[in-house]
Structures are given as structure tokens and as C-alpha cells.
Amino acid sequence: MSKAREQAVLFTTLFLFWILLNGTVSQDVLLVGAIAAFVIALMFRGGLGVLSELRLTPRALVTSVFYVFYFLKELVKSNLKLASIVLLPALPLNPGIVKVRTKLKSPMGRLLLTNSITLTPGTLTVDLVGEWIYVHWVTVESDDVEAATASIVAGFERYLEVMYG
What we know:
The chain is mainly α and about 160 residues long. The chain is about 60% helix and about 10% strand. The protein has two domains: about 5-50, no CATH class; about 60-165, no CATH class. The chain has helices at about 5-20, 25-45, 50, 60-85, 105-120, 145-150, 155-165, and strands at about 95-100, 125-130, 130-135. Helix 1 (about 5-20) runs antiparallel to helix 2 (about 25-45), helix 4 packs antiparallel against helix 7 and helix 5 (about 105-120) runs antiparallel to helix 7. The radius of gyration is 19 Å and the shape is globular.
């Protein structure tokens, strides 16, 4: 994709988000949104990483939609699990930092993976070193790398691998 096209895609994406967030198409809102989107697009001339590394294949685009639904499902599950832990009088916590492995090669794929882990209640990405991710886990179920990877990372990775490689 050419630089001019990347800039146009970035500007358009930002401008559309502005309109969606404001919920109105009045002239003053459109003008401020256009100026803000233009300035941000100038600041990020290299493009918007999430869009520039995304594989633009039909399979990757469909997988992106499924990823959002998977993330939302995991978010609800984790919230319910953490709420039940907090509400139990015994507070069955087993906190610790576990080491998990990612097979993602794309920096943006890894970024989205670590952010997804952090945004899911009960887990927090502490560090990313090469293929290793260190995660604080409120209820450590296993300190085995393979088991922890399967529990924390594998679901997200299945989608991100198709989207980013």
C-alpha cells in the first residue's frame, strides 16, 4: 500500500470513529473531527500499525470479527470468575507470575495479544521478552509453561495468527 493511501486510510478511519463517537454530523463537529484526524494522520505518517500489519485477506478480515466476539466472551467469563472469587468469604486466590510462550511473530500481533491478556480481568501482562510473556495471574492454575500458555494465550493466539501471522 502506498504512503498516500495509508495516510488516506488512517485519516478516514480516525474521522469515521470521530463521527461515531460524537453521534452527530453538525458542521462544527465535522470540522473539529476533520482537523483532529488530519493532525493525527500527519503525526503518524508511517501509518496506523494495527491496519498496516493486518493481513488484508477475506479470511483475516472475517477472523477479526470473530476475534472481537471471542475477546468479549473471555471478558465476560473473566469478570464473572473474578466476581465469584471476590464474593466468596474464603477469597480463593493463588496469585503469581507465570511464563507463557507466544508463537506470534508480528509485533502488532504480539501487542494485541498482550493487551488482550491485560484487559481480561484476573491477568496482567508484566513483560514481553522475545517469545516469552510474563503474566500476573490472580488464580494460578498451573506454573507449567504449556498449561499456562494453553489457558491464557492459546485462544487469543488462534485468531491473531490468522490476522497478523
